[in-house]
Design goal:
Belongs to the glutamate synthase family. The chain has 534 residues and is of the alpha/beta class. It has 18 helices and 13 strands. The protein has helices at 2-24, 29-33, 37-46, 48-54, 67-77, 155-168, 209-217, 247-253, 273-287, 301-313, 335-340, 345-358, 376-385, 394-399, 422-426, 430-454, 480-484, 495-506; strands at residues 96-100, 143-145, 171-173, 188-193, 221-227, 239-240, 261-262, 291-296, 320-324, 366-370, 389-392, 468-472, 477-479. It has an eight-stranded parallel β-sheet. It has a three-stranded antiparallel β-sheet with strand order 1-12-13. Helix 5 packs across helix 16 (430-454) and helix 6 packs across helix 16 (430-454). The longest helix has 25 residues, at 430-454. It binds flavin mononucleotide and iron/sulfur cluster.
């Protein structure tokens, strides 16, 4: 009897042991938040390729990010083997598909045959340089983390991103929710001003320049981004339910605790391009920082007027323009906005860039792109179209644990990334995930450099439309320049900027190991090579 009782208790004890182990480990937020149950996910994930072979979906059919794309981010973040074998499983001839053209001969020496992750790939342009801002600077990284506010992301996620920014030397955009203590982990910041002016508003919700000066002076803020719109919900204000407005969020945003916070759909501090440019100059004068705008692309009147004004007077101008694609992400948005309002990145970017290129103004602006650009091929096309830097949001979320459960709007994010629920957020270990994010960004930078070198240039900003063709889905192909109506010289910075960045990157030409075959540490192979989970 006693033996039987013991035997009956054994499975319970084993489960309790597993649960304890899951609760105490720090590597997987999912296992911490859903002890034992989460293991099923890992099991299914590990036999996923075999299952999918016969019954379920393909590696490329999931959206917004395919299994292959997520697997690439997860394995890069864990410094595991992020290679794929047996050739592409994409249907390259029957979908609109970018092809990057490698150079057979080139005098570009690869930065290193083994391509360490720690190669620096700084921005090609000095941010704020053309307008002589007091704190103009060269961005240390061509890859940076896009705006995601504290409120939409958990405190732990914000800490992980900011620590990652310090490790891999990229910047971390605060998003429109203000600057919290979680942002102060040593990483550089870009402060975003949204229509709610959180963190820089007076008691009536109006923009307050003095408060802005105070808040940006209180942290390592390198630049200021005025958000006009974002791709997933352009022209729509934000809404943070009162339940999420805890004391900390209320203090940081300058709003009342427990009350719903609605941010208007448009700015009240300016009503047209002239007023916007005046404000840009006032902010830049008061802070000394480069000031730019972020927007998705809809009607073109705004951009035409902006380019005209910058062309006319030369006394006012934005230091950078971040173009977000309609396919961009958000914490929450109505379906029609996410699906149908504003152009996808490439189309939107090309239209705006073209307006500035026609007026010879592209070198006066640092061009930043976002919307699924945290994947090497997408990023390369963006660089070929003329971006100088890319911002990544959801890909950074993958690196810190997101599994694309798409519950960000419910406050029940299972991995603790996009929630204010303390239990769920506690499963995310900021220290460990910061290294994963840093690994991912460094891997992406390295891949961008590798592809640039393969195409015969030393830096991604030197890629031009001539390096890319688009297969048109009907066994035809068109040069990138034709698809987006680019003229001969569009897509790269002017010769002075190119020479400067080329000279900078040449310093890697003579690094040890550049010219000879060297022994190097083998790639760490994942315990489960096909595992695509956080
Ligand atoms: C959870 C979440 C919160 C976001 N919050 C902001 C924000 O506060 N301000 C903003 O301009 N964009 C915000 N975005 C949009 C991103 O900054 C980015 O422009 C967009 O997701 C495209 O980049 P991606 O494809 O790399 O995700 C948010 C996106 C996500 C996923
Ligand atoms: S795991 Fe799901 S809910 Fe959490 S951040 Fe990712 S998509 Fe959003």
């Amino acid at each position: 009897m006693k033996k039987r009782t013991l035997a009956a208790l054994a499975p319970t004890a084993a489960l309790a042991g597993m649960a304890l182990q899951d609760l105490l480990q720090k590597e997987h937020a999912l296992r911490h938040n859903f002890p034992v149950i989460a293991r099923m996910r890992y099991l299914l994930e590990s036999i996923g390729p075999e299952l999918r072979q016969y019954i379920i979906t393909s590696n490329d059919s999931e959206r917004p990010f395919s299994r292959d794309q997520r697997r690439w981010v997860y394995t890069s973040a864990k410094k595991e083997n992020n290679y794929f074998s047996f050739g592409t499983d994409n249907d390259t001839e029957t979908a609109a598909y970018p092809i990057i053209k490698q150079a057979t001969f080139s005098d570009v020496v690869p930065a290193s045959p083994i391509h360490g992750r720690d190669i620096e790939v700084p921005g090609a342009k000095v941010l704020g340089g053309p307008r002589g801002r007091r704190h103009a600077f060269r961005p240390a990284s061509v890859v940076n983390v896009s705006a995601m506010s504290f409120g939409s992301l958990s405190p732990q996620a914000i800490e992980a991103i900011n620590k990652g920014a310090k490790i891999a030397d990229f910047w971390h955009n605060t998003g429109e929710g203000g600057l919290s203590d979680h942002h102060r982990q040593g990483g550089d910041l870009v402060y975003q001003i949204g229509t709610g002016y959180f963190g820089c508003r007076d008691e009536h919700g109006n923009f307050d320049l003095d408060r802005l000066v105070d808040v940006v002076g209180s942290g390592p803020v390198r630049a200021i981004e005025i958000k006009l719109s974002q791709g997933a919900k352009p022209g729509l204000g934000g809404h943070l339910p009162g339940a999420k407005v805890n004391a900390e969020i209320a203090r940081i945003r300058g709003v009342e605790q427990g009350k719903d916070v609605a941010s208007p759909s448009r700015h009240t501090a300016f009503r047209d391009v002239d007023e916007m440019l005046d404000l840009v100059e006032r902010i830049a004068d008061a802070t000394g920082l480069p000031v730019g705008i972020k927007s998705a692309v809809g009607e073109l009147d705004f951009w035409q007027t902006l380019a005209d004004r910058m062309d006319d007077d030369g006394q006012r101008g934005v230091d950078f323009i971040t173009i977000d694609g309609g396919e961009g992400g958000t914490g929450a948005a109505p379906l029609v906005f996410a699906d149908h309002v504003s152009f996808p990145f490439r189309m939107g970017f090309a239209r705006v860039y073209g307006l500035f290129a026609e007026r010879g103004l592209t070198d006066r602006v640092t061009w930043i792109g976002s919307a699924k650009l945290g994947l090497p091929a997408n990023a390369i096309v963006a660089f070929a179209l003329g971006v100088d830097l890319i911002n990544v949001a959801r890909e950074a979320m993958f690196a810190i644990g997101c599994i694309q459960a798409q519950k960000c709007h419910t406050d029940r994010c299972p991995t603790g990334v996009a929630t204010q629920n303390e239990w769920l957020a506690r499963g995310l270990d900021p220290e460990q995930k910061s290294h994963r994010l840093a690994n991912y960004v460094m891997t992406l930078r390295r891949d961008l450099l590798k592809v640039s070198e393969a195409a015969g240039v030393r830096h991604p900003a030197m890629l031009s439309p001539k390096h890319v063709e688009i297969l048109d889905g009907d066994r035809g192909h068109r040069p990138l320049a034709d698809v987006y109506g680019y003229q001969e010289w569009w897509g790269t910075p002017g010769p002075e900027i190119v020479d400067e960045i080329d000279a900078y990157m040449r310093r890697y030409d003579d690094l040890p190991g550049t010219h000879e075959v060297v022994e190097h540490e083998p790639l760490k192979v994942a315990a489960e090579p096909n595992q695509a989970t956080e």
